[in-house]
Amino acid sequence: MRRFTYRLFRATASLSSRAERRLTRAGKLALAALGAAGILGFDTNRTLGYQAFTFLLALFVLAFAWRFGFRPRLRARRVLPRFLTAGEPAAYRVVFTNDGGRLERGLALLENTADPWPSFEEFQTAREPGEARRNWFDRKVGYPRWDWLVRRNQVALMSPQPLPPLPPGDAGEVRIEFTPRRRGRLELTSVTLARPDPLGLLNALCTIPLPGSLLVLPKRYPMPALGLPGPRRYQRGGVALAQSVGDSEEFVSLRDYRPGDPLRRIHWKSLARVGRPVVKEYQDEFFVRHALVLDTFTDDAGGERFEDAVSVAASIACAVQTQDSLLDLLFVGPETYCFTAGRGLSDTERLLEVLAGVRVCRDKPFRTLHHAVLERQDALSACVAVLLAWDEPRRQFVRDLRALGTPVRAFVIVEAGAPAGEAAGEVHRLEAGRVAEGLRHL
Amino acid sequence: MTTPPLLVGAAVCFWGWETGLSLPALFVATLLEGSRVLRWRLELSPSDWNRVSDVCALLLAGSGLYLFATSGALRTVGGPRAFTLLLQRLPLIVALLVACQAYSTAGRVPASAFFWALRRRAARGEATPGALDLGYPYVVLCVLSASAANVRTPTFYAGLCALAAWALWRERSRRFHPLAWAGLLTAAVALGWAGQALLHGAQEKLEQVVFEYIFSLVRRADTDPFRSTTAIGRLGELKFSDRILLRVDPGPGVRPPFLLREASYNVYNSTVWFATGAAFAPVQAEADGATWRFGAAPGPARSVGVAAYLPRGRGMLALPNGAFEVGSLAAVGVSRNALGAVRVDEGLGLVSYRARFGGASVLDGPPGAVEDTVRAPESAVVSRLAAELDLAAKPPSERLAVVARFFATNFRYRTFQRGRPAGAAPLEDFLLRARAGHCEYFATATVLLLRAAGVPARYATGYAVQEWSALERTYVVRARHAHSWALAWVDGAWRDLDTTPPVWVDEEAGTPLLESLTDLWALAEYLVARWRYGEPDGGPARWLGWLLVPLGLLLGWRLYRRRRVGPGPAAAAAPPRAPQPGEDSEFYLIERELTRAGLGRRPAEAASAWLRRLREAGAPVAAAEALPGILALHYRYRFDPVGLGAGERAALRSRVEAWLDTHAATAGES
Question: Nearest CA to CA, how far is B31 from chain A (Å)?
Answer without folding.
Answer: 24
